[in-house]
Each structure stands twice: as structure tokens, then as C-alpha cells.
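Structure in, sequence out. Go:
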């Protein structure tokens, strides 16, 4: 593990990079790009990495960027940041707020915002990359700075893997990643085991027999059928999943019909499942298919239902030993600002990369909310009401100490393997 002296030496340049980091972050926030469209962002990243002497690979998995810095014998550490934004209209009122719109995959013009904090992730990793490049006398091994596209749609990591990522990389021993969260800025939280949920979205089409609203006896009403399915699905977690397991099943959308007195011939349900183990994941997905099929048969549906899985994310299962090593380094460096991170119900595709490379990984959180604002909300019992969460149009991490903390965390964690 790196000594605090080595950390101090590498991090001595933090104040020197703060100026460009702040400016770069504001620019990135003002110019967000949707998944698979991150061309400007990727170009800015590649330009920075090249200026610091990194070997750069662009276009990995479409718009992914990989920077490699070799510094003698030693471990290989991969640090990852995601780079895409969301189709959200910004409502922060910030002077550098996004006014960008773009055409999405469906051909629709949509507003775009860095509503999840990926602009923080990019800026922090670039800062860490510069610090490592300027202090090669304090560490040894190989640093891989990986900037991944399309996390928000769940296929960016997989796309990089399928594009030959493993063949592009030197030997990697560990993969590390982080995410800004609606917690007090300056806080760094770690936890081992299943930390982020696996996620599966499903689109289900059920069929009826359309007709006039005044003659329901001549129809098979897909609205009633869909309603019965929703009610039955509410019992899957409570009656088919063990109480010791955590799972969420949400029906987020039902679409059917066009007019009040017309019974449609089909209905479409969209639902989302969050689980922390493959066995529970399989149990719930199988139960959904069984219940939908049975309800269609009970309603005398004229056609079998159709199922489409999309936006699938793996579980993020932090390796125990890797997490212990990073947590110890954080405790030494951050003191009481290093905390235990509770299990999160959000999802990430980061683990697709270390899983494909066959290396252990850990993934931690850094706070991004002004501490005084957070404490005031907590004191009033209004955290849920007053603190915007990721994906909110009002999500606005404070620039400092968020960027500084995120940059420090990446450096300190990597030095746990790269320190001399």
C-alpha cells in the first residue's frame, strides 16, 4: 500500500489543476451528449490525455476512450469514468446550465443534461490522470484511464468489451470506479458485496379483441387484462422472494387505446426489476412470464403475449479484499470523511468490464451536495424533499469540494496498488 508521503507527493499538484478542472467541468456540463453520441466529449478527453503523454485509443465501442500510462514493472490499475448524459431538461438555474438538445435513437428531438454527474466523473479521472503523469517518481506499474460511453442505456461497457477492449489493454490487476451521489460533498463511501442492483426493463404486449365500448361482451378487453397483471405482479416480491433478499418490481407504464368508447386490441406494459443475486433475478423474471401468460389465458386472449427485455444492467458486486484495501487507504487519507456506503438500488454497467477482463473490482460513492444545505435538510427532516437526486432536472453537484474529493479518491485508491 502506498505511504501517505507518496500520496501527499502525487496530490501536491491538486491546487495547480483546480483551475482547469473547474473550467472543464463547467464546459462539459454545458455541452452534454446522449449515449453513443459523445463525440465532442471523447475528443476533449483524448486531447488532454495525449498532452500528458498517455497512449490513447479512441473509438473503442463507438465513442469510448482509453489512455494508458506505463511506468515500469508493477500492477496494472484500471480507473473508469462514464461520459454520457440524459434526455432531461435542466432546471438548476446554473450559469453553466445546459441548453443543448439532440436527436435520440428514436428520431425525437430531446433536451440533454448531465443529470447523473458523469461530468464530475470525467473531470475527476482526468485530474487523477494528470497527477499520475506528473509524478511518475512516486509510483510504478501501469495506469489505464478508461472513459466509457453509453452507461445510461446499459450497453456502453459491453460495447467496449465486444470491440476488443481486452486486446487493447496491458495486463490489468484491478478495476476501480466511483459515482457522485446526493450526499454531503467531501464524503467518500465504500462497501463490499452486492452494492448496486442488477436491473432489467421489460416491455410486454398483451392482446385482446377490440370493439365498441357499448358492447364489451364482443371483446376481450386488454385494459382489464393489463390491470389484472399489474395486481398479480405486486405479489411476486412479497410471496416468491425470500424475506432476506432485496428486490423491487415496478410497473412504470401502461399504454392502451385511443378513445373513451373504443376497446383496444392490445395493451403495452413496461416494467423494471432490481435484484442483487442471479437466483432472485431469475425467479422474478420467470414469475413475470408465468403470470402474464396465465392471465392472458384466463382472459381468453386471442394471441400469446410478447416479451422484450432491454436496458439490462449487471449487479455491481464489490470484491471483499479489493474493497478492504481501498477502504483502508481512504480511512488513512480522509479520516472520518471515509464512511461505509449502504447498498444502493441504482444500477451500473461498470462491472461488465472487470468481469470480462477477469479481474476484481470495487466501486465507491463520493458526495456532491453542499454540506450545509444537506445538514439543514437533514435537521428539518426534508432530505427527500430538498435534496435533488441523480437524474433529477435539479441535480447540481457543487463544484468544490466535489471535484477535489473525487480526484483524491481515485489517486489514493490507485496508489494502494501502484505505490512504490
Amino acid at each position: 500500500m502506498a505511504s501517505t508521503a507518496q500520496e501527499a507527493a502525487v496530490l501536491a499538484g491538486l491546487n495547480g489543476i483546480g483551475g482547469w478542472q473547474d473550467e472543464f467541468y463547467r464546459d462539459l456540463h454545458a455541452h452534454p451528449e446522449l449515449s453513443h453520441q459523445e463525440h465532442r466529449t471523447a475528443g476533449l478527453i483524448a486531447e488532454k490525455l495525449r498532452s500528458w503523454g498517455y497512449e490513447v485509443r479512441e473509438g473503442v465501442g463507438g465513442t469510448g476512450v482509453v489512455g494508458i500510462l506505463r511506468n515500469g514493472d508493477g500492477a496494472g490499475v484500471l480507473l473508469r469514468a462514464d461520459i454520457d448524459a440524459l434526455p432531461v431538461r435542466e432546471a438548476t438555474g446554473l450559469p453553466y446550465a445546459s441548453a443543448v438538445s439532440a436527436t435520440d435513437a428514436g428520431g425525437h428531438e430531446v433536451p440533454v443534461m448531465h443529470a447523473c454527474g458523469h461530468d464530475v466523473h470525467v473531470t475527476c479521472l482526468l485530474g487523477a490522470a494528470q497527477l499520475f503523469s506528473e509524478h511518475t517518481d512516486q509510483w510504478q506499474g501501469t495506469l489505464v484511464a478508461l472513459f466509457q460511453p453509453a452507461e445510461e442505456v446499459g450497453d456502453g461497457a459491453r460495447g467496449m468489451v465486444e470491440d476488443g477492449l481486452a486486446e487493447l489493454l496491458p495486463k490489468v490487476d484491478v478495476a476501480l470506479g466511483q459515482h457522485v451521489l446526493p450526499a454531503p460533498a467531501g464524503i467518500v463511501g465504500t462497501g463490499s458485496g452486492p452494492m448496486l442492483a442488477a436491473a432489467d426493463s421489460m416491455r410486454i404486449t398483451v392482446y385482446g379483441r377490440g370493439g365498441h365500448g357499448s358492447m364489451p361482451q364482443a371483446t376481450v378487453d386488454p385494459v382489464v387484462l393489463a390491470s389484472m397483471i399489474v395486481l398479480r405482479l405486486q405479489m411476486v416480491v412479497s410471496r416468491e422472494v425470500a424475506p432476506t433478499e432485496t428486490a423491487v418490481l415496478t410497473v412504470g407504464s401502461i399504454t392502451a387505446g385511443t378513445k373513451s368508447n373504443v376497446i383496444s386490441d392490445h395493451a403495452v406494459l413496461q416494467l423494471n426489476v432490481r435484484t442483487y443475486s442471479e437466483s432472485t433475478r431469475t425467479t422474478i423474471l420467470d414469475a413475470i412470464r408465468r403470470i402474464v401468460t396465465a392471465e392472458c389465458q384466463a382472459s381468453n386472449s386471442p394471441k400469446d403475449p410478447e416479451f422484450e427485455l432491454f436496458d439490462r444492467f449487471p449487479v455491481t458486486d464489490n470484491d471483499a479484499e479489493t474493497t478492504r484495501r481501498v477502504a483502508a487507504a481512504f480511512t488513512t487519507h480522509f479520516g472520518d470523511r471515509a464512511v461505509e456506503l449502504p447498498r444502493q438500488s441504482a444500477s451500473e454497467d461498470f462491472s461488465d468490464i472487470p468481469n470480462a477482463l477477469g479481474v476484481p473490482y470495487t466501486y465507491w460513492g463520493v458526495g456532491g451536495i453542499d454540506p450545509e444545505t444537506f445538514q439543514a435538510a437533514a435537521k428539518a427532516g426534508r432530505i427527500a424533499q430538498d435534496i435533488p437526486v441523480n437524474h433529477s432536472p435539479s441535480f447540481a453537484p457543487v463544484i468544490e469540494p466535489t471535484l477535489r474529493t473525487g480526484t483524491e479518491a481515485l489517486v489514493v485508491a490507485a496508489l494502494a496498488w501502484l505505490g512504490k
